[in-house]
Write a structure and sequence with these properties.
This is Cyclin-H. Belongs to the cyclin family. Cyclin C subfamily. One of its GO terms (cellular component) is nucleus. This protein is mainly alpha-helical. It folds into 2 domains: 74 residues, Cyclin-like (Cyclin A, domain 1), CATH 1.10.472.10; 100 residues, Cyclin-like (Cyclin A, domain 1), CATH 1.10.472. The protein is 70% helix and 0% strand.
């Protein structure tokens, strides 16, 4: 699945749970539905049979889950399905660097660390706070720094030249904010912590079902 499609699916998933509770809807079911919907929206042509072929477990159940949840997901997204990912902006930056910044011999060497940075940023809520182009720019700057290159003059002269009237200090704050969020994303919980969270969720769901049953008996 292309990175752009993965990014769209993840944003769908996050937006869904901005409005809904994980105790009400199974996150795995929402995620697989979001991934299939993203394939459609991003025009990554794959049939539902081909899609579920890569899913472990009962294929028929997976198809039923996707089809029964797809309209719910679209409705909870308020029918706003177009997602602007930072991946397209990155391509623009790499092309512009190649054409207008000869100091960087081969911008393509930045691609791998850029994608790593974007994968880390995707685990955060950066997509709700910053624009795709800002996230892409942070990825380019961070990747250039890690590879021992410097694109400061490209950013200040080419992107933020005086004719654009940008407040450079604000841009710096934005870039640093994104870099900080991406760095924090690397501190993922270990397997035992995740198991504990899942067990607590299962326990809470069971209690909710028991309360529902008790209330129904007295109605």
């Amino acid at each position: 699945m292309p990175k752009n499609t993965q990014g769209t699916a993840l944003i769908y998933f996050k937006r869904f749970f901005l409005r809904n509770c994980i105790l009400q809807y199974e996150p795995k079911d929402v995620l697989v539905t979001a991934a299939f919907l993203a394939c459609k929206v991003e025009e990554f042509n794959v049939s539902i049979d081909q899609f579920v072929a890569n899913i472990q477990g009962n294929k028929e159940r997976a198809i039923h889950t996707i089809l029964s949840n797809e309209l719910l997901l679209i409705r909870e997204l308020r029918f706003h399905l177009t997602i602007h990912n930072p991946y397209r902006s990155v391509e623009g930056f790499l092309i512009d660097l190649k054409v207008n910044f000869p100091e960087l011999a081969d911008p393509q060497t930045l691609r791998e660390p850029i994608e790593r940075f974007l994968s880390e940023a995707a685990l955060t809520n950066a997509c709700f706070i910053y624009s795709p182009s800002q996230i892409a720019l942070a990825a380019v700057i961070q990747s250039a720094m890690k590879s021992g290159s410097h694109v400061d003059s490209y950013v200040t002269n080419r992107l933020l030249g005086p004719e654009y009237h940008f407040d450079i200090s604000q841009i710096v704050d934005v870039i640093n904010g994104i870099r900080y969020m991406a760095k924090r994303a690397s501190d993922l919980p270990d397997a035992s912590t995740v198991r504990g969270i899942l067990e607590k969720m299962a326990h809470d769901k069971e209690q909710i079902e028991q309360l529902k049953s008790s209330r129904q008996r007295y109605l």
